Amino acid sequence: MVGEIKVEGVVKRFQQQNAEEVIALSGIDLRIETGEFVSLIGPSGCGKSTLLRLIAGLNGADEGKLYIDEEEIKKPSYERGLVFQDPMLFPWLSVYDNVAFGLKARNIYKANHMEVQKFIDLVGLSDFSRSYPHQLSGGMAQRASLARALVNHPKVLLLDEPLGALDAFTRMNMQDELIRIWKERGTTMIMVTHDVDEAIYLSDRVIVMTPRPAKIERCIEVQLARPRARNNPEFLSLRSKILEILHFTGTVAEPNYYL
Amino acid sequence: MKKLNAWLPVLSAILAILVDYGVGNIDKHMPAKHPYFMYLLVVLLGAFTIIALLSYFNPKAKEWIEDRSLFIAATILFLNVINIVTKKLGLLPVIFFPTLDKIISIIVEDRDFLALCLGSSGKLLFTGYFFGAIAGFATGIAVGFSNSANYWISPLIRILGPIPATAWIPLVLISFPTTFTASAFLIALSVWFPTTVMTSSGIFNVRNAYFEVSSTLGAGKYYQIFMVGVPAAMPHMFIGLFNGTCASFITLMTAEMLGVKNGIGWYINWQKEMMAYANVYAGLIIIAVTFSILITLLFKVRDNVLVWQKGVIKW
What we know:
Helix content of chain B: over 70%
Largest sheet of chain A: 6 strands, mixed
Distance between the termini of chain A: 53 Å
CATH topology of chain A: Rossmann fold
Largest interface: A-B, 30 and 25 residues
Low-confidence stretches of chain B: none
Number of domains of chain A: 1
Low-confidence stretches of chain A: none
Oligomer: heterodimer
Structural class of chain A: alpha/beta
Helix content of chain A: 25-40%
Number of strands of chain A: 10
CATH superfamily of chain A: P-loop containing nucleotide triphosphate hydrolases
Shape of chain B: flat
Distance between the termini of chain B: 35 Å
Number of helices of chain B: 12
Order of helices and strands of chain B: HHHHHHHHHHHH
Strand order of the largest sheet of chain A: 6-7-8-3-9-10
Strand content of chain B: under 5%
Number of strands of chain B: 0
């Protein structure tokens, strides 16, 4: 098995319009095991999406290094598939051609064209392979973009709030879908989310990040058997624990009274 | 009224036939060899009678004719009015406003020469358009994707682009070996500018996330340019091509004054100088029909290429 991610002392700064520097990530150390499902959670501005983009190789770190299977990450690669909140399907291609894009781009479509239909079936879009993206609902489009990333057999799948734009019911269905795919493929998954429930429901480990300075506040192991129940007492206690961490380290002032 | 809808063109044609047959001609006009306008009306009458009858059986024909019947009837009525004003009453100066018979007779009797003119205009137009469009795409893509091309070429486009192609005539005439190449170059230039500008602006407007996604899917630089950037910019490119087409028509008409041997623009100009206004109108009608067919073709191609755009944007 492959797909181990190592992040060592990564610092990322952004220049703002007024030439002020914003520290998007200050000294991140993180190790994600092969086949692990990890969620990055935290308020806006805590650098979780930035971290994901660095792992994808879309941006470079200012300090520190990132590795996949001991190899330094320098540029984007099909080994690290990426799914955004917006499905970003290519609107000029049908669902089939969207999914086939990676294989064609890597010039291995001829030998592997059976894979395309297989992954379309895997995400349950068998009847829509000839449709264009504008004909799909939000949930279907997100499934298609998942299939598009998976067809490359990435070692790691990076998910940037993949379910953020979906309604509550579609969202819960898609969460189960993600778990099913993850179990079936054993791909390492790293997901950015705003949703504490989603993070606990899906992940082996929830990484709680805080803004200013943008760093990892705590890593919380979720040792619950799958399938998980959202109303399990342990689930709820983890939930309040995470909420507590987020609450007390944010900008919210401590209450000025004592009981 | 509603029931008669499909028959409106037929009624209008019958009215025009009655007028042309029943009302006496004024003898200021040179008569044409044949009553061509009457022939045209009879053809129209026959065609629209068949369509009106068809509309009772075929829902498609019914829809088609009911959508257009009022417009067609009005058009025939307009021709009828022109006929009355010219041939019947001679209200307009005879030399500038010949009879419809005369205009149609030119199209019919002069058809060989008109076809020859149309052919040479077509050759000139397509040569210029082809090279202009190719050059436009190439420059647009280069400017859109390469920083150094953008740095060096963009100012050039901004300065040279807005100059009307025809303003180059003095320079072009001395730089090209033949008038054909000179004219073709002018047309190419007029197509090149809008195509370049719209192609590059289309590429600049492609959401960066498309390139990011494609790079995480394993696409290399050139694959990204041609399989992501170009298709995403395609709607803009078609706007550029469309503007280029209109500009090329204008340039064609002017370029044909550079001493070509024949051509439809040249024909009109020549006939105007001969004061043969029936021929001028015949030429104009042919240009209108040809150009509108070309534009329709371009729209058809666009609809096919941009089928994915249905429901996204329309122009």
